[in-house]
Specification:
The chain is α/β, with parallel strands linked by helices. The protein is built from ten helices and 15 strands. Strands 3, 4, 5, 6, 7, 14 and 15 form a seven-stranded mixed β-sheet that branches. Strands 10-9-8-11-12-13 form a six-stranded parallel β-sheet. A two-stranded antiparallel ribbon has the order 1-2. The radius of gyration is 20 Å and the shape is globular.
Length: 324
């Protein structure tokens, strides 16, 4: 089979299409023919070893020192079940599915093996393979941090910093579903998109310093991580929660060591990869209450170009790779 392989950290050209043995499913596994996958900001961060400040040594120990220990990247996919292990009962050959390998990766290939009890669900008929492939990365991250960590409630005021990325557009739609009042921060070119997804207010960060507006929020979700979290703590109301998804280690530790006033909290953690959460997102999408925003699609052979585009930091939603 063809697979995109990254043996050493580096620029987009570090990813090359190679021939690899096709995986064989074990007793409780599925073999999925990949029809679509994505190149996420997480994939590019790993490929380029662009880890948040302070996390570099830890990330290299976990992922590989000079290059990814698992050279085939890719955290999410949609495709068709081609074979099943003898003990599989939930799926059959020919099923159209959505899968989230997550940290185990392996989606950037023509075939991927998933455990039956992993994050694998049936693809709704109203979603294309491209749309289905882009549900997981942003959606599962947003679901974990907003629902499970911040416990966002109806009527609360939410500020999303970096609202036009995959996590941002997912968070916006979930917060709308839950009845929050949403302020989205992004560049002005994305304002129309963000309003169409449910933002009550959109702030163009290139024109306005939103930290000086005087507004206060119950929850702040920072998907960008370029500013010290302490800057945003001052924007929280009493009992407010700041969720810095991408902050560097030193900023996080410095913020956590300092006493917080008025019940304010800084919440961190590691996102969910549970099948039940992928099913939750898929059910919303099937009802038309949640959708993947696809910025661009690239054929699999142009995966290096897809990485280069994500590296620009200007993508809206997800960048999809399609496989024939």
């Amino acid at each position: 089979m063809k697979a995109a392989v990254c043996h050493r950290y580096g620029p987009p050209e570090s990813v090359e299409i190679k021939d690899m043995p096709q995986p064989v499913p074990q007793d409780r596994e599925l073999l999925i023919q990949v029809k679509a996958t994505t190149v996420s900001s997480g994939d590019c961060r790993i490929r380029g070893a662009n880890f948040p400040r302070g996390f570099g040594p830890l990330a290299r120990l976990a992922l590989g020192w000079s290059g990814p220990r698992k050279p085939v990247l890719g955290t999410e996919l949609s495709g068709i079940v081609q074979a099943v292990g003898r003990d599989v009962t939930r799926f059959k050959v020919g099923d159209h599915v959505i899968a989230y390998p997550g940290i185990k990766a392996g989606a950037h290939a023509e075939y991927c093996v998933m455990p039956e009890d992993g994050a694998v669900v049936m693809k709704p008929a109203n979603l294309s393979f491209s749309e289905a492939a882009a549900l997981g990365f942003g959606g599962l991250t947003a679901l974990y941090f907003l629902r499970d960590r911040a416990k966002l409630q109806a009527g609360e005021k939410l500020l999303i910093i970096g609202a036009s990325g995959a996590v941002g557009v997912a968070a916006l739609q979930l917060a709308k579903e839950w009845g929050a009042e949403i302020t989205a921060v992004a560049s002005g070119r994305n304002a129309e998109l963000l309003r169409s997804l449910g933002a009550s207010h959109v702030i163009d960060y290139t024109q306005t310093d939103f930290t000086k507006s005087g507004a206060r929020y119950d929850v702040i979700l920072d998907t960008v991580g370029v500013v010290n979290p302490e800057t945003y703590v001052e924007l929280l109301q009493k009992n407010g929660r700041l969720v810095p998804i991408s902050a560097d280690l030193f900023h996080i530790l410095n913020s956590l060591w300092k006493p917080m006033k008025d019940g304010k909290k800084i919440l961190t953690g590691v996102g969910s990869e549970r099948g039940v959460d992928l099913q939750f997102l898929t059910d919303l999408a099937a009802r038309g209450h949640y959708k993947a925003v696809v910025d661009r699609s690239f054929p699999f052979a142009q995966i290096a170009e897809a990485h280069a585009y994500v590296d620009t930091g200007r993508k809206r939603g997800s960048v999809v790779l399609t496989l024939s």
